Amino acid sequence: MSNTATTLAAPKQASYVQSLLILGVLYFMLGFITWVNATLIPFLQLSCQLTIAEALLVTFASYLGYFFLAIPSSFIIKKTGFKNGMAYSLVIIAAGCLIFIPAANTRNFGLFLTGLFIQGMGMSLLQTASNPYVSIIGPIESAAKRISIMGICNKIAGTISPLILASIVLKDAEVLETKIKATTDAVVKSGLLDNLASRVILPYIVLAVILVGLAVAINRSSLPEIDTDNKSVDNEGKTVTDSRSSIFQYPYLLLGALCIFMYVGVEVMAGDVIGTYGRELGMSLDKTKYFTTFTLAAMLVGYVVGIITIPKYLSQDMSLRICAILGILFTACAFMTSGYVAVTFIALLGLANSLMWPAIFPLAIEKLGSFTKLGSAFLIMGIVGGGVLPQIFSRLYNPESFIYVQGMDFRHAFLYCMIPGYLYILYYALAGHKVGKR
């Protein structure tokens, strides 16, 4: 009898492990595509001769795709299932990568933004499918641990992607920048900028090929489907009934969507804007192009801590409280210091941000039952905060902006964007995730 039980249990465990491996690959690619934007910001600022506010439209365009396709994504997944939804998302992201070819050939910033927007739509579909899948595939109380594992895959990719792309597209960037500024001949200058822009073509062709190949592999994989349409599960894994008939009757979900908005905003500020912050402090492009890697390395440390401590030593809401408090402290320290010390504190925000997504997402979709796919889409819409907050930051200290505040510098702008975000995340950790939860 014991042998029979062991034999029957083995395939189930293998399926679970295999599913996590497949999801790990998806999260790796998601991180790679997402965090190369940190390199694209200075690259496009130089090659397309942009202001800081214009260059930060890179994040805005990418995250705007999340906002517009999030709700449709839930209906797409309802029709296709989780697995096919993930495969289709990779093809959409690949299409966005290929748009970089004509964009680079014409040095057309609008086309670059179009490609980024399409990538964002694909990533929206991927996130809408993969995040609830990771949360639901095992016990809900350990969902943060599984998402932390996925986060490690995501941030390992995010740590290396700026290094890889920067070594290709921003090679000898400081020398090239000096040469471009010194050139008075319009034809020569245009030739230098065209050669610089063309550097991005090959990396994005390679990315597109890999993404399509991975989509085919996912489609043919044995990744199991999960039924979320007819049940709701509590923290003990027991099925519960809920008579609510509308997604808007789950206030903790709606508050969670705003929490995701704030979280992704501060995460992108710490990861993508750290280079801009260093440049404003007078540091060279050859140095600042690698700063994002430091932030993501700090996030990796946080994910490892999460895997060890959640749920054995820390609950998901407690880990969120600790991270929000660290975010407030590190932001204040960055404001009160200067030079590399300030940059170090911004990089340490990666540690503060690390366990936020793994905690917020499962807290917000818990007990949604048949509304899980749509609830996930609401949360994915919140990712647009990653595009909005950098835009607010860049315009607060720009004298030509309509929201410019007299005497505001980049340090104050960073502080005023970050502290409210972390305070709201702290509120959600303390009370917001309980509002309306039965």
Distance between the termini: 40 Å
Structural class: mainly alpha
- Beta content comes to under 5%
Poorly predicted ranges (pLDDT <50, ≥5 residues)? 1-14, 231-238
| Cα-based radius of gyration, to the nearest Å | 22 Å
The ordered string of helix (H) and strand (E) elements is HHHHHHHHHHHEEHHHHHHHHHH
The coarse silhouette is globular
Q: Total strand count, please?
A: 2
Sheet with the most strands: spatial strand order: 1-2
Structural key phrases:
single chain, 438 residues, mainly alpha, two-stranded antiparallel ribbon, 21 helices, 76% helix, disordered N terminus
Q: Would you give an account of this structure?
A:
The protein is mostly helical and 438 residues long. The protein is built from 21 helices and 2 strands. The protein has a two-stranded antiparallel ribbon. α2 (37-47) packs parallel to α8 (143-169), α5 (82-98) runs antiparallel to α7 and α16 (316-336) packs antiparallel against α21 (410-430). The longest helix is centred in the first third of the chain and has 34 residues, at 2-35.
Summarize the structure.
The protein is mainly α. 76% of the residues lie in helices and 1% in strands.
Helices and strands, with pairings:
Layout: H1 2-35, H2 37-47, H3 52-55, H4 57-80, H5 82-98, H6 100-106, H7 109-136, H8 143-169, H9 173-182, H10 186-198, H11 201-219, E1 232-233, E2 239-240, H12 251-271, H13 274-280, H14 285-288, H15 291-309, H16 316-336, H17 339-353, H18 356-365, H19 372-381, H20 385-396, H21 410-430
Antiparallel strand pairs: 1-2
